[in-house]
Fold this protein.
Amino acid sequence: MRKAIPLLGLFLFSSAVAAEEISLSEIEVESSTIQDLATNQKSEPSTVNIIDESKYEIIDPKNIDEALRTVPGITADVRAGDVVEIHVRGVNQQEFMWEDTGVAVVIDGVPVLQNGGKVKFNLDNIESIKVIKGGASYLYGPNAMAGAVIITTKRPKDRDDITVSAEYGSYAYQNYLASVNKSTDLYSAVLNASYRYTGGYWDLTQADTKSVNGKFDYYLDDMSDIEVGAEYTKKYEESSRGSVTGVTNAAIDPTGASDPDLPWNHDYNSDIQKYFVTYNKDFENESNLMVNAYYYVDKYDYEASPQDLNGDGTDDDWTRDSSEDTYQYGLKSEYRGIYERMGYMVGLDIGQRELDEYDVTTITYSSRRGDYYAGESTTNDNTEDRLGIYAEMKYLVTESLTLILNGRYDYENYQLDTAIHDYNGTVWSDTYLSREDSFTNFSYRVGFTYQINGDTTLYSNISTGFRNPRVYELYAYDFDPDRYSQNNPNIETQTTVNYEVGVRGNGAVAGSRVGYEVSVFQLDTNNIIAKNAGTYYSNGDVYFDNVGDSRNQGVEISLNSDMKKPLAFDLAYSYLYARYTSHDPFTVDLAPTYRSTGDVTYDISNNVLPRTPKHRIDLFTYIRFPSLPKWLLVLENYGQSGYYADETNLVWMPGYGIMNVQLRYNTKLNGNRLEFFVRADNVTDKQYYRTVYLFSDRSGDGKLDAEDASITVDPGRTYYAGLKYTF
């Protein structure tokens, strides 16, 4: 069976319909494991966007947002480095520190445990990206409230060659890659190695990534194969500074170099390992079985908590060493088949996720919260045991109408064990806490597709998603009595319901093929889990609760034309209106900071969710010169409208637009492929605000305004050049 199948996916029921006039390829049984990257547009009832290998290569992202902004509906928050918080359709956009964003990030089929809504990507090992929008828990279980970002890493190609490339750019950027492909009648394999470095535009933001990874496919016979994959990546980031406080500082010191305070965290080191083995078997009755076992490790350590130790008003050193180690392992399997006019898939997902956190004080000091002594430590062991059973059925009612039904049952058991080693100035003490809780959830999708004609498909669906409360939210006081006032074991699961209708297809404009997809959606979020008085409020009576509901409505448009033509384009546009339909009273921390005196409580029901611009547009234009067939000019124009930076809707941040330009050259050297490019990003040198966060009166002037915002300023114009040779 000559196909690579990176099966690391949840157990899904996906199906296809086959009547005598309808073939399996026309209404395809799709997998949650990324095998079926090219979604069948005629039987997919949800909005799905794909960034294929050729598009990803042209984008050549320096962080994952540069790729994802080509997809309508994505509102990713970008800071320094390549750590990005991904939001879809504005869900959970109010959260930006340690919470889950409601997006399942799936790498080679495995939903990766997100630490604080953030995922660390090895950008050089990504081959393609698929984005499913709307509640996607029917496929990927917990934390897929808004959708899923599905990443396929580089796969074996049916060829024998070696590719080497080098790229250089602004702020000492450099990137080196080597890839070896080998293919025979018995096997195919790929081995990749990469090194990426940047000196960083912002103060103290040097970073590098080193990685070796590969996949090996062995063809057992004409109907089955086995694939083994492995990756070892080491990442370093000097700090996560990347932001300054207030619009004045953003204008005069956008890098934060003059900030006397040290960044909160420093010297991040990540050690990432991924392993999997997949068995795939096709049967003569057009059914298929896939079984996958995987193991994922992300060991992460850093220094934290800078303090002014001598009282001179300037931070002297970091006072804590911290580590956050993630372990995931599991077994996933799915079986797909066809029965008369119905296609189906059934599957099983079992596994465990574990997050081990360790924090130790390295220097004795005093702060507003009290005295801290060297040697004090806290160890948290967060464990999630998971069982998911789910299915999809597609039924061909007529040659034009297909009905789709998904259902998934999830059982999750959460356990948090904490050990605290503490000193009160006289004696040492040890405290041990253990809490656990379990949840069962059922999620679904029901939809249809209707073939208006051979080129046009009408589709619609209702889909659901969920996020369970964490143990540390249910029992916050037990684990952190200095910060929280009480436990709340009665927190309900946060859920979403997505309604959408759309049309996709192909047409002809001025003799060129144009593909399109237009969808209208409403996504309701119920029982938002957050702190009772405000997302990041920390004074007085503070605990976690279900604080409100929201409604996100919008329109998403994708257009693309024939890339073989002299002039081609690829456009993504989204309109989003996201607001709270209800919310508990919301308190803002005003001066003097960290005190309840002067705090103000607002009614934010019907307010717009922060950081949700109404309009976003990304347009790629490709220009080929008939007299210069080896050259390609690529223009990217991206823009977004303004947005509120905070839940209270007191502070408005401006929109912006940028243009990126690149020139690519493809030729042959000694019969081998040679590629070269030069690129200028943000050619107008506009230092716009990448991301803005605002939740308290940081300036201490007794009001909440733009001088309190944490702002990440874009570096402005940057340059890159690269060369790639395949032989």
Summary: Residues 1-29, 33-38 have pLDDT under 50 and may be disordered. Helices lie at 53-59, 65-68, 137-140, 247-252, 471-474, 476-479.
